[in-house]
Design goal:
CATH architecture of the largest domain: 3 Solenoid
CATH class of the largest domain: Mainly Beta
Radius of gyration: 19 Å
Number of strands: 15
CATH topology of the largest domain: Pectate Lyase C-like
Strand content: 25-35%
Helix content: 10-25%
Length: 224
Amino acid sequence: MSKVASLIDIKGIRDGLLVKLGDAAWPTFQVALINAIDDRSAFYKGARLALDVGDQVLHVAELVALREMLSERGIFLWAVLSSSSTTEQTAQNLGLATRISKPRPSQVQPAPDGVMDAIALWLPRTLRSGTLVEFPGHVTVMGDVNPGAEIVASGSIMVWGRLRGVVHAGSQGEVNAVVCALELNPTQLRIAGVIAVSPKRKGKAQPEVARLKDGILVAEPWQA
């Protein structure tokens, strides 16, 4: 077995590829991963990648640098799994998932209104301008989505606050996805392939849910 192979364990999962870190320091692993990708660039291009780093303690600069190197190669880093609370918090601060497992079938409850069942990303903070969150599932934000922030989710998007940025729910064509917010005033809202720009609001804001009806985006009162 080559040194690179011993450092990197890659397997397919429902949402892409899972790369598990072997016994190595972070710089050594990073070089090995990039070399392995470059050796099979056609295989990895366009892949969604989840990274299991074990007990490695990683900070923002390290994960941002890796994410940029992967992005340059057409790879989307969407999750970082770690037993380190520091690494887990860092990943969450960057909008990355930290869990990929699903409940057992007996524990799965039917989704309301036909919304697809999927994994979900919980973000306990306001998303500020310049933040981009991409996730293959549902996204819940406990805070505001400010102008200049963007969320792209293959499932639904729920914002317990003011939604004033750009959101794209059902990004992989899921027409039953919805967008909910306590104040729905996005710069741009998209569900599947349908796009709408919010008109200037008149009157007091109220919780609303946006969904597709007969191929048209409509907003209705949200009674959560």
